[in-house]
Specification:
single chain, about 200 residues, mainly alpha, about 80% helix, globular, transmembrane, amino acid transmembrane transporter activity, LysE family translocator
């Protein structure tokens, strides 16, 4: 694949993925509330989910997404329900944790499934790959090697963007030392997570 095409794809993805949306909101809320150490299963699932959408577009399987639209709707609402559950946990989380201690973490499997549900159920991501990507790249001419190049480009862009958001959220978290600040952080994170759930639910 030509370098120009990859750069155009990277630029378009950077704009689309860099703009705060439900996935980024959920990610930032999670880091502020719990720290960055346990967020990587969530991140990995987000990246794999985007890779799935990219593969569907590249291999001409958009019809699959349309045929099994009901399945994707179910995935979307599972993601919404789990984000609401996380928001409730953050809102009610204890704030008297000692220095160096954190409340009990969710299991990596649960975080991975949450990240996958959020990504696969996010219409913004689906529309980028299935509707906008064909206007950026001539998908009919993309070979397996081209798909690998697109996937690698996607990974580089998403890793850079998402880790930047994680770093920013982690730095903000360091400023929250007092019990009152922790309570405010939990409530803000809960509100952000609930907002992410509402944004996904409202999009058709």
């Amino acid at each position: 694949m030509q370098l120009t095409s990859l750069l155009i794809f990277a630029a378009a993805l950077f704009v689309a993925a860099g703009s705060p949306g439900p996935s980024i909101a959920a990610l930032v809320a999670r880091v502020i509330a719990k720290g960055f150490r346990d967020v990587f299963p969530f991140l990995l699932a987000m990246w794999i989910g985007e890779g799935i959408w990219l593969s569907l577009a590249v291999f001409g399987l958009a019809v699959v997404a349309q045929t099994f639209h009901f399945a994707f709707v179910i995935v979307k609402w599972i993601g919404v329900a789990y984000l609401v559950y996380l928001a409730w946990k953050m809102w009610t989380a204890p704030v008297e944790a000692k220095e160096g201690e954190m409340p009990r973490e969710d299991s990596p499997a649960k975080l991975f499934l949450a990240g996958m549900a959020v990504t696969l159920g996010n219409p913004k991501i689906m529309m980028f790959y299935l509707a906008l990507l064909p206007t950026i790249i001539d998908l009919a001419s993309v070979s397996v090697v081209g798909w690998v190049e697109l996937t690698a480009t996607m990974a580089v862009v998403l890793v850079a963007i998402d880790l930047a958001w994680v770093l920013a959220a982690a730095q903000a978290r360091k400023l929250l030392k007092s019990r009152r600040a922790m309570k405010i952080a939990n409530r803000v994170s809960a509100g952000t997570m609930a907002g992410a759930a509402a944004a996904i639910a409202a999009r058709s």
